[in-house]
Amino acid sequence: MQVMPPCELDGAAIVLVGSFNPKIYQPAWLAHHKLIRDEEAEAADIRMVRPELTDFTAGWLTLQVLTERFTASTADPSKFKPLCDLVIGVFSILQHTPAKQLGIDRTMHYRMPSEEKFRAFGHMLAPKEVALATARTRVGVRDDARSTCRESIEVRPIQGRGIRPCHAVGHILRIK
Questions:
Q1: In terms of domains, do 132 and 88 share one?
Q2: Which of 92, 113, 76, 7 is nearest to 58 (CA)?
Q3: Is 145 left (phi over 0), alpha (psi -120 to 50) or beta?
Q4: Residue range 1-16: average pLDDT?
Q5: Which range of residues forms the domain containing residue 171?
Q6: How many domains would you assign to the chain?
Q7: C-alpha distances out from residue 3 to 112, 117, 126, 145, Å
Q8: In whole angstroms, what is the distance from residue 161 CA to residue 45 CA?
Q9: Is there a single domain that holds both residue 93 and residue 135?
Q10: Helices (H) and strands (E) in the chain, counts
Q11: What are the residue ranges of helices labelled H in 126-172?
């Protein structure tokens, strides 16, 4: 059995795509609606608040809102539930905000002891046989024929730049 190295970063993000007014999403507004604590709002590191972008960190929360994308994230696993509660709270208050897509992303960073272990982990995580078989298979159409469910996979070389040992070239697998 392969032993995983310790996780160095464990984070989550909730991303919505739609139409947003970035100026609304400020630490004071979140605190006013009891979505974050007053102390977190007062100590927030506000990087930018403009009509087209709001970007700040308040304690455990990082929030970035563009006119077409809302992203709330945390690098504290004990705050995953509060992150969900915050996003639900925001859009319960702003219930008429048009959002058309929602994604939940996880980020986990592991320092691999060698390139060999790194490659073995990558092959375990995304086996080439499965990726290639999936790439050759067309995913079907929904019964109601109103929308087509498609899946596409892109496998391409990438340069590691500090992520992989010795800047080794690897592959990225993207499923759309």
A1: no
A2: 76
A3: left
A4: 83
A5: 113-175
A6: 2
A7: 11, 10, 18, 46
A8: 28
A9: no
A10: 5, 8
A11: 128-135
Residue 70 and residue 120 in one domain: no
pLDDT per residue as tens digits for the range 72-112: 999 999 999 999 999 999 999 999 999 999 999 998 887 88
What is the 8-class DSSP label of residue 109?
E
Two structure tokens written together for 121: 């982990």
Secondary structure letter of residue 141 according to DSSP:
B
- Report CA-CA distances (Å) from 86 to 20, 44, 89: 16, 16, 5
pTM above 0.85, yes or no: no
CATH of the domain at 40: 3.30.310
- CA-closest candidate to residue 174, choices 131, 145, 115, 144: 131
Instruction: Name which of 21, 32, 3, 38 is nearest 96 in CA terms.
Output: 21
